[in-house]
Design goal:
The protein is an alpha/beta fold. About 20% of the residues lie in helices and about 30% in strands.
Length: about 375
């Protein structure tokens, strides 16, 4: 029997994520001409890296550096190599960035944070990486640089938490700036990325879906998971997490919306319907294919005398799907059917994080 994680992926891949005709040509890259590896902090520079301390101000002759050296500081990180130290960003001001001069092109950018409890990364003034957590968490994204300079900033992910960067690696993929096909994800804690977690701690399926695309028609897709813990639909938009989808989305991309649990606390059905409908409309206008996902239930739902037909604004998703002609995946009943098939509440315990009624373990 496939596990719950496979059920999620199978449900999503049922939408036949084949690479559209005409997009395959965008995968051909010119020879890389702009590659960098930066080691941040004042604790020494790892082999193969360019050292950058908080006092390294940007200059055109250098080609990189901090725009505001007064709003960054050197800190220890506690990892090894390039991860042993970091530069902390002490202001979220939009101009407080680390800048790198780059020729026009598409770049793969990998950021390793310092000892940050939770920080997010902006590039080109847009949220690109959400809530990297704890020591040396690492994330990689693709993005175009068209104005001659890449701007990177660590910003607040949790109030009063350190936001710092230990290392950045930049690799040019092409000289056109054309992005590979993407799968963008909107979601909450059940979908979000987690870092440095024990197997029995909470995990989100959005971080794992890319593993299941290998060997499928969607193997060339890049997954960009913008989900965060505690988020709701209006907060996702107001917090800037929808901005990269609006900015970079294009024909052939997919936009998966799996959110609603926290809307019961911070919003209501009417607002949820309006916000999600607006995201769907804007994504479709960019030529993207939208998939709406009804979220799985709580562990305790499997022990009810009368099982629930659904949760978390599933009715609104059905209405939006019908009105806008987009697919709705019923993950709630797929989850419930799977749980019952393996024995119900007790059998599903290992699929949930320890002492947690909502979030999945790594197995889940």
């Amino acid at each position: 029997m496939k596990n719950f994680k496979n059920k999620i992926i199978s449900a999503l891949l049922a939408c036949a994520m084949a690479v559209p005709a005409g997009l395959a040509g965008t995968m051909t890259a010119s020879a890389a001409t702009a590659n960098w590896k930066f080691d941040f902090g004042n604790g020494g520079t790892s082999s193969g890296y360019t050292g950058v301390s908080a006092s390294t101000g940007y200059s055109s002759s250098l080609g990189y550096g901090f725009a505001q050296t007064g709003n960054v500081s050197d800190v220890k990180a506690g990892g090894s190599g390039a991860g042993s130290d970091a530069v902390q960003f002490t202001s979220d001001d939009a101009a407080n960035t680390f800048n790198v001069d780059l020729p026009k092109g598409l770049y793969e950018v990998t950021v390793t944070v310092g000892n940050a409890p939770r920080c997010s990364i902006k590039m080109e003034g847009i949220l690109q990486m959400m809530n990297l957590t704890r020591l040396n968490a690492t994330e990689t994204v693709q993005l175009p640089v068209t104005d001659g300079q890449l701007n990177i900033q660590a910003v607040t992910g949790i109030a009063n938490g350190q936001r710092s960067i230990s290392a950045i690696e930049i690799k040019q993929l092409n000289t056109t700036g054309v992005m590979n096909p993407h799968i963008w994800i909107c979601g909450d804690s059940t979908v979000a990325n987690y870092y440095n977690q024990d197997d029995n701690a909470q995990h989100g399926w959005g971080q794992l879906i890319g593993n299941y695309l290998k060997g499928t028609p969607a193997a060339n897709y890049v997954v960009r998971n913008m989900a965060t813990s505690g988020q709701y639909a209006k907060g996702f938009v107001d917090g800037g997490q929808f901005v990269p989808i609006e900015t970079y989305g294009k024909p052939g991309d997919y936009y998966i919306i799996s959110i609603g649990i926290n809307d019961t606390n911070y919003s209501n059905g009417d607002e949820y319907y309006t916000v999600v409908s607006d995201m769907v409309t804007k994504a479709k206008a960019k030529g993207m294919t939208v998939i709406l996902v009804k979220q799985q239930g709580r562990h305790g739902d499997l022990s009810r005398d009368k099982l629930l037909p659904g949760r978390w604004f599933g009715g609104q998703l059905d209405q939006i799907g019908q009105e806008q002609g987009v697919k709705v995946v019923d993950l709630f009943n797929a989850w419930q059917d799977f749980g019952l098939s393996i024995g119900g509440y007790d059998a599903m315990t290992e699929y949930y994080a320890a002492d947690d009624d909502l979030h999945q373990s790594l197995k889940g």
